[in-house]
Structures are given as structure tokens and as C-alpha cells.
Amino acid sequence: FTADLDFAVKNSDVCFIAVGTPQKEDGSADLSAVFTVAKSIADSMNEYKVIVNKSTVPVGTCEQIEQTIKENTSYDCDIVSNPEFLKQGAAVQDFLKPDRVILGAKNERALKIMREIYDPFIRTGIPVIEMDIKSAEMTKYACNDFLALKISYMNDIANLCEKIGANIEDVAKGMSYDARIGANFLKAGIGYGGSCFPKDTKALKFQAQKVGYRLRTVEAAVDVNADQKTALFYKASNRMISFEHLKVAVLGLAFKPGTDDLREAPSIDNIALLLKNGADIVAYDPVAMNNFKKKFPKGVVERGTISYTNQIEEALKDANICFIFTEWKEIKKVEPEAIKQLMRTPLVYDGRNIFDPEKMKAAGVEYYSIGR
Length: 372
Hints:
By secondary structure, the protein is an alpha/beta fold. Helices cover about 45% and strands about 15% of the residues. It has helices at about 5-10, 30-45, 60-70, 90-95, 110-115, 120-125, 135-165, 170-175, 195-210, 215-230, 230-240, 265-275, 290-295, 310-315, 330, 335-340, 355-360, and strands at about 15, 50-55, 75-80, 100-105, 130, 245-250, 280-285, 300, 305-310, 320-325, 345-350, 365-370. Helix 2 (about 30-45) links the parallel strand 1 and strand 2 (about 50-55). Helix 7 crosses helix 10 and helix 9 (about 195-210) runs antiparallel to helix 10 (about 215-230). The longest helix has about 30 residues, at about 135-165. The protein is elongated.
């Protein structure tokens, strides 16, 4: 381990670029960190290197990386695209046991070195798929955007289920047994968040527009997700006369359980709306509260107030309404009878379909979820 980049480059055969590519205001990917690292590698090169890009980048970026390096060194190099497919909260497991490894390269010399690196995976039968660089770059976006499409599609169907009296969970179960569809990413909720799906759908949409093509399916996924994130708030708004000075319990802040990541988390949009409408929020999350306090410090915000607690019971006590934004196991353990006893008005809006509607009804809780 070293913090000396020059030492690291000079003493290695292969250099991996693994930096963030956050979203710009126009939806495009910010590649400044990628090119900064590429130039730093070039400045330190002392012999032939394989430069491997793992960052999620628009198609054609590896060509620009190669150009940047060649402009700043006389040493030879090969560029490889090796996109990562790691989930928040399960990155180590996903790295050790990947579904597949994607390698995009221009020549056999670079591929031979990459096969040597990934030999333990090859020997255990994990597919290592070789292709050209642009196809490898596109594979990352194609995978993430397809999964985002599945989520937005299920949320669209869930909204229709509510209107016609169907149950999205039964529909999803029926769909999951179709081998052409599969069981993953069929769970309805309040939309996707995190570091990948929001920015990758917008980045691919932006790249398509640059070449004069409309990715209508991806555009639809983005639009549905934007509406879905605040669907619970507006559903509650139709039920409530006002949020002014109401105690609102918020359970879950992170975009998914197992992480403190707040990037594109639905809790942010909903809490902003609640505060704007004068709510007094008490928020709970087992790991993400410190990060959330950076966005919404404790105290008066807009027309409302926000405070934080380490106890679910404290958030629920004397609350007029409760919103659930993350399916933490700690929240799942709460009994409907406890919700009824603790809340001043047992009114729950569940964005993750944690609880059984019949059990909540039997306990005397007015309960609303997604697509049920």
C-alpha cells in the first residue's frame, strides 16, 4: 500500500483506473478525475504498461485515455476496458464471486496479461468475456440501464395495480417464474437511487442525444423514476389537510439497506417536500443519519423542523404520520400493534412494501403501500 502514485506506477505492470464519474447538471458524466489520473500515470511511466479502466465511462472514453497518455509519455501502453459490476453493500462478495468478467482490448498482448490477472476466476468457471473496447464500455451502461428499466416498469405496473385492484406482489411472483424475465429487480417501491442507475441512465440518454438518437425506453425509465420517488408524499397530501406542525416519523434514509449511501435516495426529495410544507420530522436510520445531517442539519428547515433518533420507537411516539423509505431489517421487526400503540394517529405510508396490509389493518393501522 502506498500514497505515492509515482512509486506505484513505476513498480507495476498494470494500472487500474477506478475513480468516480459523477453526473453533471446536463446529465453527462464528469470525466475529469479519469483524465487527471491518466495524465498522472503517463507522467510516471518508465516502461510498457497495461492501463485498465474500471470506471463507468461513455463509449469512446478509453480512446481519449489512450490519447492523453500518449501525449504525456513516450512509453508504449495498451488500454483495456474492464467495467465493474459491484452492488452497494455487497461489493467484496461481488468482486470475489462475479457473474462474469468483461474485458475489452485491442490486441492479444493486453488480453494475455488480463487473463493472467483473472486466472483464478477462469479456473473456477466464471465466464471471462472478451470483446472490443467500445463494446465493453457499452456493456456496463446496457446492463445498468436495463435493470433501471425493469424497476421503472414494475413501478409503472404497480401504480396501475392500485387503480384496478390488483396486487403487485402477486403479479411479480407470477412474472418471476418466466425464465425469460427472471426474479430479480421485480420489486415495486419508490424508485431507484444510489451511485449507478440514476447517473448511468441519464449519461446514456445524453450520449444518444449527442449522436442524434432518442433512447425512448431509457427516457421513460428516467421519467417514471422521477415521479415515483415522491409518489408517497403526494398520496399522503391527498389524505391530509396539511402537514403544518404535524409530527412525521421517517424510517429509513439510505437509498438501500446495508449502506449509508444517500446518492439519489428518495428520502431526500420527500423530506425536502415535508419540511417545505411545515412538517416536524423525527428521522431514524441505523447507519445513514450522520450523512443525512450534512444535508439537513438538526433544527428549523424551511417551514418545518427535523431531528434524529437512534430509536424507532422514539420516532413513532405520538407521530401523526409515518413514512418508510428504506427496508432495514430493524424496521421490518416492528410489530403492527406497536405502531398502533405508539403513534398518535396510526397512519403509515410504506415505500418498500415491508408490512402485510391485512396484519396492519387487523392491528388498527391505516396503511398505504405501493401497488397493493
